[in-house]
Amino acid sequence: MKLYPDQEDIVADIHTSWENHRNTMAVMPTGSGKTVVFSHIIQQLQVPTCAIAHRKELVTQMAMSLARYGVHHRVIGPSDVVKQVVSEQVHELGTSFYNPNARVAVAGIDTLIRRGSELSTWLPQVKLWVIDEAHHLLRENKWGTGIDMFPNARGLGVTATPVRADGKGLGRHSDGVFDDMVEGLTMRQLIDLGRLTDYRVFAPPSDIDLRKVPVTQGGEFSPKPLKTAVQSSHVIGDVVEHYLRIAKGKKGITFATDVETATLIAQQFKGAGVRAEVISADTPGRIRTELMRRLRNGELDQLVNVDLFGEGLDLPGIEVVSMARPTASYGLYCQQFGRALRLQEGKKHAIIIDHVGNVVRHGLPDKARVWSLDGGEKRPRAVKPEDDIPLIACTECTMPYEKIKTHCPYCGHKPVPISRGAPEFVDGDLYELDAATLAEMRGQVAMVDDPSIMLNRMARAGAPQVAINSYRKNSVARLEAQTALRESIAWWGAHHRAAGKTDPESYKLFYHLFSIDILSAQALGRPDAIALANKINEYLIYVY
């Protein structure tokens, strides 16, 4: 199999990293060919290797990728998985590359740990371990236990999102085992190159209420309250209604919170004439394989799944993803989103229908991000400030767009603010404020620029001379600080005008980043003015 140039580049980067580091993390978006890359490396090195996965389907998928490279391999897994591996390889390739005595193995993590004693002769011979979805790997969890079984091996972990919902770091210096990180192209770069399909997102109005759904220590919504919240809303019916409205007849998968909810969704699909089935981690392997085959062959329109297609699994041909499962995990959200981005003949774009606010919660997944092996507060800002603009869903066409836009860029709809009497109602857009509010705010700025206004008021009110003198002194220092702040604001405005933003967009972005509108900023006291000027300057340095 011939690699794409970007895949060749990351293979080279991995080898370079190994010159100075033992364990390397490779970051590649969903659909970019992670399995192809590490299969290529295994074929290149020709050393005893163990490729590790966390589910039966991924073991089978890894084994198939190695077979395509002509790599003979054993399978460390239950007998039904071995039979599945052999069957699929014979079906696709006409022969099987399964060999129980091979030096290369594909293993399920649980079976690997369980069979440690019977593998004691082979384990020290292994020179390379590879883990897909490597963001799972921490020193103290079962993944760490698994790789510790290979005392003489270096490691390669691949993932689309090297971040954990619990905030733990993947580096050896933190909670993980990786010494270095290399990165492939971003999702947006792959889309622009035509390696992944572009997408359209729809976020229909939803009545789901997550305020009483706690987030666990692992960083995800608590399952039972989440199930209750979904079933107490109209999400189940909305999934079917909007699939029929937006993507009728297209091949799709729906992410559900639990098997009961998935069954209700599938029943409504069937009642509307949509060929749908439920699939979950509890579905027997033989049936899972058959359901995926039927979806792939066009015998099904929808698979409603529970915690099965979120990670790793290659599902070509998916045209639409419906999100009925809220997630607090950015990584899981990106995995779900990415299921629809693989290329397909005749497919103009993927369709994402988000019923639970995941897109607005996490932002679009193709924004450039700064990844790190650090954990918690040591991790650098994940995205540049201008890439971290929140999204809102258009009330007319339901497509999300950046909140700083004054109009929906897709249908042209302009939201009407509920009030024009304060900056918070218009997201800092001064053009949307009413005349009385603007006059009052300008009056506050005028008192900064001309201290005599307040000094005259104080004199007329009979204020003590010491108070008048103190105000006069403080006013001079305040105006000096404001002069510096306004210079920073001017640079801010010039930068964004040069970048093509309108003044209303610039006002909204300023309000989003600094939690104050530009006019109120010009009435701040000395300490707050200095602090804000520093923040603006830091932002401009970061952007430039």
Describe this protein with a few key phrases:
3 domains, 7-stranded parallel β-sheet, Rossmann fold, 19 helices, 544 residues, alpha/beta
Question: Can you tell me about this structure?
Answer:
The structure is a single chain. This protein has 544 residues and is of the alpha/beta class. The protein folds into three domains: 5-184, P-loop containing nucleotide triphosphate hydrolases (Rossmann fold), CATH 3.40.50.300; 191-372, Rossmann fold, CATH 3.40.50; 423-543, no CATH class. Helix content is 41%, strand content 12%. The chain has helices spanning 5-18, 34-45, 56-68, 79-93, 109-114, 142-147, 187-192, 223-231, 235-247, 259-271, 285-296, 330-338, 358-362, 435-449, 452-460, 465-498, 503-514, 518-521, 526-543, and strands at 23-27, 49-53, 74-76, 104-108, 128-132, 154-159, 180-183, 199-202, 252-255, 276-280, 302-306, 320-323, 350-354, 391-393, 400-402. The strands form three sheets. A seven-stranded parallel β-sheet has the order 3-4-2-5-6-1-7. A six-stranded parallel β-sheet has the order 8-13-12-9-11-10, sandwiched between helices. α9 crosses α10 (259-271) and α16 (465-498) packs parallel to α19 (526-543). The longest helix is centred in the C-terminal third of the chain and has 34 residues, at 465-498.
Count of individual beta strands: 15
Tally of helical segments: 19
Distance between the termini: 41 Å
**What gyration radius follows from the Cα positions, in whole Å?**
28 Å
- Report the top-level CATH class of the largest domain: Alpha Beta
**Sequence of strands across the biggest β-sheet:** 3-4-2-5-6-1-7
Overall pLDDT confidence: 91
The shape is globular
- What are the segments in which pLDDT stays under 50 over at least 5 consecutive residues? none
Number of domains: 3
- The amount of helix comes to 40-55%
What name does CATH use for the topology of the largest domain? Rossmann fold
How many strands, what sense, and barrel or not for the largest sheet? 7 strands, parallel
Strand residues, percent = 5-15%
Assigned CATH architecture of the largest domain: 3-Layer(aba) Sandwich
Task: Please name the fourth-level CATH homologous superfamily of the largest domain.
Answer: P-loop containing nucleotide triphosphate hydrolases
Structural class: alpha/beta
